[in-house]
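ok here's WXG100 family type VII secretion target:
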Amino acid sequence: MSNNGRNAYSDQALISVINGTDTAISSMNQVSGQVGSVAAVMPMVNNSESGIKLRNAFTTWTSDFNRVVQMMTDLNYKAKDLLRVNRSTNTDASTTANGPSSGQH
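and the structure:
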């Protein structure tokens, strides 16, 4: 695993996290839309005690879902920030090793 010494994550590992969280968030949002469609019709088709319990479960699910998506979004941003640090550090190290590009020595 190559890294720049600033953190223990290679560019490839960070890209994998970024792509994985992007894909997961997109898939979860599709599922959320489907669950939301079902939850929206519940009061019309089941207004009994069991329907009320099910609506409460949907409310809990929505809250939990939003919390998970936010955590995944935060992870995605952190991975993107670390990737920027890796690439910036690599660029800075290359510039230092090769000397200034302006011809000044």
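+1. The longest helix spans residues 49-98.
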